[in-house]
Amino acid sequence: MPRKAIDLTNERFGRLVVKKNVGKARSGNLIWHCHCDCGNTKEVAAGNLRSGVIQSCGCITQEKRARKLLEKVESEIMRENQDFRATP
After folding, report:
1. How many angstroms separate the CA atoms of 13 and 50, rounded?
2. Domain map of the chain by residue range?
3. How many angstroms separate the CA atoms of 29 and 36, rounded?
4. CA distance 58 to 36
5. Is the per-residue pLDDT at 83 higher than 70?
6. Do 46 and 23 meet the contact criterion of CB atoms below 8 Å apart?
């Protein structure tokens, strides 16, 4: 007996809000069209939404990378300033 599909319309998963079902993947998972808080859209398998694997269109990953790069640059600048001050 097939499992009953759960309607995820208007549900929020992280930064994504589910808008409509767009079909099924080869695996049988339902695919949902979602809108991200940043304004982008993404189609995501229901299992990835419900498990928390996918929480945004990718903007969270981009923000983390940018933050990490900024921290690296800031630490290099601080190190250079300390070296400059230490030089007689």
Report:
1. 7
2. 1-57, 58-88
3. 21
4. 9
5. no
6. no
Q: Is 4 helix (H, G, I), strand (E, B) or coil?
A: coil
CB atoms within 10 A of CB 40: 14
Q: What is the pLDDT of residues 39-76, one digit of tens each?
A: 999 999 999 999 999 999 999 999 999 999 999 988 88
Secondary-structure percent of the chain, ordered helix, strand, coil, rounded to 5? 40, 25, 35
* Best CA proximity match to 33, nearest among 21, 51, 49: 21
Dist CA 12 CA 84 (whole Å) = 50
Q: List, for residues 12-32, the tens digit of each pLDDT value.
A: 999 999 999 999 999 888 999
- Helices within the chain (DSSP H only): 46-51, 59-86
Measured distance CA(76)–CA(60) in Å, rounded: 24
